[in-house]
Amino acid sequence: MQKEMAAIDKAVPVGAATIEARISDLARLADQARALEALRDELTKQIEEKDALAENEQQRRAATEHQLKEETQLGDSARAQVALLTRQIDDLKGQLARLSSALDLAQNESHQKDAQIGNLGQRLNAALAAKVEELQQYRSDFFGKLRSVLANRSGVQIVGDRFVFQSEVLFPVGNAEITQAGEDQIRAIAGTIKEIAAEIPPGVNWVLRVDGHADRQPVNHGQFASNWELSSARAIAVVKLLIDNGVPADHLAATGFADFQPLDPANTQQAYARNRRIELRLTDR
Questions:
Q1: At 264, which CATH number?
Q2: What pLDDT digit, counting tens, does each position of 135-148 carry?
């Protein structure tokens, strides 16, 4: 700008017209300067805006790269977890398969055992039925032979599958010591029982039950506290006498029922006499 003004000063002589021309040139140059400054400011502004945009873009790219990196890391972690879960699922499937196989095997074994148990049950039932039938045969023999031994004897009755002895036939009133006449009857019975026992095979588990019964009248004898003791003592006395006369002890049982199994529920002396009794019954264990 200064060079242009110096050239103008040299080329144009000083005068009014020259001054006006210079003023005009100065004004024009000033306008150009202002225009250049405005252009410079505009360019500076644009540069700053572009720098800001560039910085924002750089920040955005950095953020994007960071996010992408995090997502990549998360993806790697997720893939690792998926792989771990897949292995665990495979392991569980393997365990389930082994358990299913073991369960199938156990069920098969259970079915086989059930079948074996069923077969054993059938065989056992058949064997028991055979034993019962066999015992029934010997019970019939026992019943017939004992009936012939006790035929026409006073105070002895047959009630169902039992031989019933009135207590007065074997014992004094209120006592558990067998009379001489009672001992004779028990010895005769023992001989019949031994004869039948010799015919019964060892595998047949028979037992001769001796049941003692009393009437409902209270016991007045000081030796016995109640009818329980009296009925039990009488049954035991008969069992001991049978043992003394050769009947195997392991095939005998003594039971006392007191007055709770009466044949006659009436409150008469005749009913009391019927209810005081000893019963013999051949049965199984």
A1: 3.30.1330.60
A2: 566 667 666 776 77
- Let me know if residue 158 belongs to a domain: yes
Does residue 240 belong to any structural domain of this protein? Answer: yes
Q: Are 206 and 281 in contact (CB under 8 A)?
A: no
Is residue 157 assigned to a domain? Answer: yes
3-state SS assignment for residue 218: coil
Confirm whether 191 is domain-assigned. yes
**Range of the structural domain that residue 214 is part of:** 152-284
Is 242:193 a contact under the CB 8 Å cutoff? Answer: yes
Tokens 């169902």 belong to 160
Residue 234 · residue 278 · CB < 8 Å: yes
Number of domains in the chain: 1
- Could you tell me how far CA 130 lies from the centroid of its own chain? 37
Contacts 24+ apart (CB under 8 A), 217-225: 217/272, 219/174, 220/174, 221/174, 221/175, 223/176, 224/174, 224/176
pTM of this prediction? Answer: 0.53
Give the phi and the psi of residue 245 in degrees, each rounded to 5: -105, 20
